[in-house]
Design brief:
single chain; 177 residues; mainly alpha; two-stranded parallel sheet; 8 helices; 2 strands; globular
Length: 177
């Protein structure tokens, strides 16, 4: 797979997120964001690792997503939110139930997260309220930074492209024959 195919897959993934947001499909957009983080964390994992892990997800979030955003949560909170949204379409995960991470709930559109955050705080709930579109923008910026950084490092781009060769990609039907 060439670097062009990697960028095409990335573009299509982000396009799918944008289509979800434009059509007010916020939970599917979140699933795509969290799976996107998984994908890029797996592409970025150390050379000796065969598959991505929670730790790779956390490191990718810390390095690319959280370092340049104003999201109030930690990488482990995002991982717990990923587990909650992807596995149960809710805010609760094993990590949040065990007190290892805070829950994340969402606001969207023109709704600021602040009023809901204040309500939660007033009743003693420690969940973070994150604006869906803010998380989407942070993810897009993180992907851009990741790809630019990798693109400037010949060793890393070779590793990422080798790994990306295993990703599904669209194939013209003519190639099936």
């Amino acid at each position: 797979m060439s670097t062009e195919a990697l960028f095409e897959n990335t573009t299509r993934h982000i396009m799918a997120i944008d289509l979800c947001i434009e059509n007010k499909l916020r939970m599917p957009a979140l699933i795509l964001v969290y799976s996107g983080i998984d994908i890029f964390a797996a592409l970025n994992r150390p050379i000796e690792k065969d598959e991505g892990t929670r730790e790779d997800f956390r490191k990718w979030c810390d390095r690319y997503l959280l370092s340049k955003s104003e999201l109030p949560c930690s990488a482990i909170d995002l991982y717990a939110a990923r587990c909650a949204v992807v596995h149960s379409y809710s805010s609760e995960s094993r990590l949040s139930r065990n007190g290892e991470a805070k829950e994340i709930v969402y606001s969207w559109g023109n709704q600021s997260p602040d009023p809901l955050q204040e309500v939660l705080k007033s009743i003693g709930h420690t969940a973070y309220v994150i604006h869906v579109e803010t998380l989407v923008d942070a993810f897009k910026n993180a992907v851009k930074e990741f790809l630019e950084e990798v693109g400037n490092d010949a060793e890393r781009i070779n590793l990422v492209v080798r790994r990306a060769a295993k990703l599904f990609k669209d194939q013209p039907r003519e190639l099936w024959r």
